[in-house]
Amino acid sequence: MSRLRLQADKYLAVGKITVRNNLAYVHDFVIRSLFLLVILYIFVQLWAVTFESTGENRIAGYSYEQIIWYLIFAEAVIMASPRLSMRIEEEVKKGDIGYQLTRPVSYLWFQYAQYMGEAFVRLPVNVLVGGALGVFLFGWPDLGLGWIGFFLIAVGAFTVNFLLSMSLALCAFWVEEVRGLEFVYNKLLFTIGGMMLPLETFPDFLRTVCEWLPFQGVVYFAAKSAVHFEWITILKMVLIQGGWTILLSFLLYAVYRKGVRRLNVNGG
Q1: Of all helices (H) and strands (E), which one includes residue 62?
Q2: Fewer C-beta neighbours within 10 Å, C or N terminus of the chain?
Q3: What angle do CA 55, 57, 61 make, to 5 degrees?
Q4: Which of the residue ranges 86-100, 109-123, 134-148 would you say has the lowest mean pLDDT?
């Protein structure tokens, strides 16, 4: 038990160091997050036209205000997610991966601790920047416990996103260039992952398919938990995220073990 505690403390320390390092550059994150306002402004205009043309107060159970707040939280999660593919790709190309693998820590756990530390510095910044637009348009939102639900589900969302992104990033052990895979993956999050549209707006068949895929656990769950908070729904989301975490962990470990055996370092 003490050994497990020691290991946990080690990776917790990695996460804390990452948080401190990123807090030193928080002003850069704020400036970068201003792009979020441009994206949200476009969505605000599009949805304003959509609601006006349909003449409905609600679309798929969402009011205009709820849709915009949904998009604010969804974009905050996406923009807070570190780009693992670029990091791993550079490590392989430069040969730094050899040094990383010889450290007296698990490479995967080390990357996870760094990932979560960075993500949870970026996330509040994105929520504040995007939320400022929401407050300007609608006033302070009546989300109730949605704030708790969002940050609770965000832990699982970033975990599932890490497992998927890291599995793709480790393909650099074979092909080195993996940014194309990351591009495709991000587009899946934008579409069937529920970033651009809540899954309730999808046709029944497509929504059923999406509910059997892990992408909903990254964006849709987090955003919906904020604007439509229900304890029973939160529990269901946590269980689904937990199930995908277990399955994707086995996948990631298998890719990692096979990749390490075939790794050919080309850097110095």
Answers
A1: strand 62-63
A2: N
A3: 125
A4: 86-100
Instruction: Enter the pTM of the model.
Output: 0.90
Helices (H), 170-230: 172-175, 179-190, 204-211, 220-227
Identity of the residue numbered 157 = A
d(CA 132, CA 163): 31
In whole angstroms, give the CA distance from residue 74 to residue 77.
5
Do the Cβ atoms of 235 and 150 come closer than 8 Å? no
Between the two ends of the chain, the Cα-to-Cα distance in Å is 40
User: What is the three-class DSSP state of 230?
Assistant: coil
The residue to which tokens 């939102």 are assigned:
141
Mean pLDDT of the region 58-75:
92
Give yes or no for residue 77 having a pLDDT over 80.
yes
Phi, psi of 62 (to 5 degrees): -115, 135
List the structure tokens of 90.
Answer: 């550079």
Domain ranges of the chain: 2-262
Give the containing element (helix H, strand E) for 150: helix 146-169
